[in-house]
Amino acid sequence: MSQSPETFDSTSSSLLDRVRFKDVEAWRQLVRLYAPLVYSWCARAGLQSEDAADVVQEVFRSVAISIGDFRRDRPGDTFRGWLRVITRNKVHDLNRRRAGEPVAVGGSEHHDLLNEIPVATDPMSDDDSRESRGAVLRRALDLIRLEFEERTWQAFWRSAVEDQSTADVAAALGMTSTAVRKARSRVFRRLREALADPPEAM
């Protein structure tokens, strides 16, 4: 059931916590947010569309199985980075199978460690990080927009995205400056809940 504007539970767990607890809607949201990113990595790695779609399925199957293992133990650890490692593993596995080579043994932990070694020519390197981060943020914003009244959304959008001054936004929307700041804060809080990584870590 969809939520009416501004009635979402502000105390709800983060997206990944909800996925870990088998929340079906949270899983769907995770896939909607990140599957296009995984597909773009596969395309950059040279996979044809059918192979890329298969790898996307394999990646999210692995995520479903191992989401409980994801941790942010070190500075810079992000879900997006973890997802990129899994994607790179799956692309390597596909290429090995195509070449008739055995897939690496030693368990997934050893496999992941080997694949975390940076490769200068890796097509899934983070050269496109700003562009791909922006795409995930745009999808997250699209997902949450209907949860807010239009004036609340405009207060957020104009002040946070278009970088208009709080006073100018307040005057244009017939709000107080305090109301604009509160609206911006509410949307940011919801955005943090809707993403697997906090916006500042994206």
Q: Keywords for this structure?
A:
single chain; 202 residues; mainly alpha; 9 helices; disordered N terminus
Based on secondary structure, the structural category is: mainly alpha
| Overall radius of gyration | 20 Å
Mean pLDDT score? 81
Low-confidence stretches: 1-12, 109-121
- Which outline best applies? elongated
Order of helices and strands: HHHHHHHHH
Number of helices: 9
Biggest β-sheet, characterized?
A: none
Describe the 3D structure:
The protein has 202 residues and is an all-alpha fold. The chain is 63% helix and 0% strand. Helix 3 crosses helix 4 (79-98). The longest helix has 21 residues, at 24-44.
Helix-strand blueprint:
Elements: H1 15-20, H2 24-44, H3 49-66, H4 79-98, H5 107-115, H6 129-144, H7 150-161, H8 166-173, H9 177-194
In short:
By secondary structure, the chain is mostly helical. The protein contains 9 helices and no strands.
